[in-house]
# Entry
Amino acid sequence: MKRLITAIFVLCFSVAAFAQDPPITQPEFVKMLNAVPSNPGIIADIITAIRKRGINFVVTDGIRSYARTKGANDEELKRALDEAGRRQKDPAGAQPPSPKESNDLLAKATKKTLEAVGDMPDFVVKQQIQRSAAYAGTNNFRNLDRLVVAVSYRSNGDENYKILSMNGILQNAAESKGSYEEAGGTSSTGEFVTLLATIFKPESQTQFAPLDTDLLRGRKSIVFEFFVEKDRAKQMITASGTTSASTIAGVKGRIWIDREDARVLRIESEATDIPANFPIRTARRNIDYAWVTIEEEKYLLPSVSDVRLTMRESSKVFETRNLIRFVNYQKYGSVVRVLDDDIKPEPEPPIKP
# Structure
């Protein structure tokens, strides 16, 4: 297999000193949560306080339930609380990384990721895509449609998309146009290599900073914030429909790196520098990675991607969501078939009062 030769650089930075304020008590945490319904913007402040100060109470199921209810089911708040609970329970086992460990891990992750990008095989994979929409900010998504898409990936970076099924109705793959053109609506590409390469290639000059530790799918990881400037990221966002337009954006977000083997476990990214008059207001994508076997070789590839866009139409702002599951990775040229489980619709979420 070919190797991508690249210069590996060490990113130097220091871990922000943890504040000397005492750990958060349970009554103090409950008081913070009680203030959220009238001021949702303070969730970010609560998360920062948890990460900097820690907690001095046991995180029980009751505390988690109360945080979900009062904290608008915020995923980052849940993760920060759980990680603080692990630190409170096992201070030695959940210590924040030292500057040396952070630098070393980033250098190893850069080297391994770029080598993996260069060693990517030709393959096919099936995408199960549930598309939904909501009024922005409500998180009350209603299902729109369900697609089954065959993706062919070549090691030169080419990606070819064929729609196999729409809402359980088989499509003529031979006549499919590629990507999601016939289906309309929100689509997403580039999960396999593009985002990883953008973050780690030296010419991106990505800015990294350690944020937290986490336990993700049983693996100890360090969470880093990252930022790539617009002129270097060159992330393409296209709006289609009643208004067709494209723009180039930067990218920022968080990345989870396995503390033991220095491989990427998760990326949460968000487009930056979107023009104020562009129809799409925000573009976010979360990707989880898992080990898969293709022709008896193991590769770390996407398992789930959650893509969300917000857009304004007249006086209303809508949010779309594409939940993409990647299943049945196979060698290039294999036939991708639609099975009963592929076309089973996701249950509708309950309507919020």
Q: What stands out?
A: The mean pLDDT is 84. The chain has two domains: 26-89, 123-343.
